[in-house]
Amino acid sequence: MPEVQNAVRPGSHASTCDRRAVVAGMTALLATAWPTGRTAAAPAEAVEAGKDTSKGTVETVSDGTLSSSLGFMLPAAPRAEVDALFETAGESVEASPIPTNVSVVRVGDEVILIDAGSGNSFQPTAGKLVDTLEAAGVAREAVTRVVFTHAHPDHLWGAIDDFDDSERFPNARYVVPAAEWDFWTRDDVETTVPDWLKGLAVGSRRTLKRLEAKMERRKPGETVAPGLTYVATPGHTPGHASVLVEAGREQILIGGDALSHALISFRRPGWAFGSDLDRDLAIRTRLALLDRLANERMTLVGFHLPGSGVGRVERSGDAFRFVPA
Predict the structure, then answer these.
(1) pLDDT of 47
(2) Residues 211, 273: contact at Cβ < 8 Å?
(3) Most-buried pick from 171, 207, 256, 263 (CB within 10 A)?
(4) What residues make up the domain containing 127?
């Protein structure tokens, strides 16, 4: 999560129709059937007669952009090495807007959001999710479930309307990693996080408690929706979990903030990120996740990755690279 900058008052929401609808899973996924349980089904044409299945798609829409400083992002990396990395890649080292990609999974009658964006009180360039969903043909009342990867503001706060404290997705139920719930709802959570996160932690605790009556808590390996399973990717936060979407032989990992920068996370996964609460654990998670994604040639959707956030991971020398779809 980027550092908090230019937090805005409730009510300063600006509309946008910058929809980025990308089918994550390509043609194969669009033609795949999912069962209502955990086990993946065969391609649609091969599904046995009478089995309760439904077609599923995954796309991303934007919640806007965020800003952060390079110094916050990489607090320990030598600046000369950072400059060299960006120069070799032919990219500018200057900070650029950070995308926020909310995934929309449609399976059967369900419309499932993976994360809910930041709402209007985090940064003025974010909080656009309701507008982009409408542009994608998804009314907020149509959302049946919101699955959170973690409880940082840019993933959680958008579930509650800043004006009247109502739910933005009134017909939805919610799912959060159990370890995230346990951490962020502690009465003393602000004493357990760095100074930059203390006020934000209080806001996340309040948001989670506001949703408690409709909130389900799930552990890694457990089903969070039909065909969707939590995968443990801790470090960025204590209970951070990615979401594995299984559709026949196609697998899509919606990675939240486990891999958050298209260059640094892949080329230098051993560098510490300023927003990771447990930096050593986050590094181990990145390395293991990159290895899995490259070996299994799995589609990745990254919340802060460029474009639609959709792509694949390839090995590149002794590191990796992100290849956008």
Answers:
(1) 21
(2) no
(3) 256
(4) 57-324
